[in-house]
Amino acid sequence: MASLDEFLAANPGALKTALEDNDIIILTRNPGGAAEDILVKLKALLDDKAPLSAAVTGTDAWYLTSHFAGSAEPISSNLSQVALTGWGTKGDSMTVSSGIFTFPSTGLWMIQATSCISLESSGSERNAQLLIQSTRNNADYDIISIGRASVFSDSTFTTSMRSAVAIMSVTDLANHKVRFDSIPTNSNTLTRGGSNDLQTYFIFTRIGDTE
User: Fold this and answer.
1) I want to staple 119 with a disulfide (CB 3.0 to 4.6 A). Which of 14, 72, 131, 153 is the partner?
2) Which residues pair with 165 in a beta bridge?
3) Which has the closest alpha carbon to 191: 66, 68, 62?
4) pTM above 0.85, yes or no
């Protein structure tokens, strides 16, 4: 077997062509320890000509800036795009109106919702639901993911976390939208927010094209 150096010397354009074709080059040694290199070409994932860096083409995050008690269907007030130190976005931003989020582009979108709840007085919360709901006609909403949490308080500050995740196919920007509902069983349960920290937040990641 020719060594890698000998192979490239005999085929000077091989490495350049592989890189231009978005192939992945993996250099290894033979298991037996011989000083022979193996050149393995693997076609890039996702697209015939797409490099791996093209996998995620859009990211955005929004959060709740203050607490509220009881239910919100949907969460529609005190929402802000995350701009805290260390956070970043890619591509165009989501937009929100009255708690309804509109996507900036079509594609497959991963939606992650995380929310902190608390009780600050004696009592219990047995089933605080966090819903991700989507619409295909900009009117009727269906639950596509549910997060649940419970918390018991003996008059001291007590918290719990809930989360939900979904992957949504967005092909119609005017009609395919998403919202988030917070539905506790105890009207004193707080859905927590903060101006300088993420306690209830939503992350949107475009992970690819629709088929």
Assistant:
1) 153
2) 112
3) 68
4) no
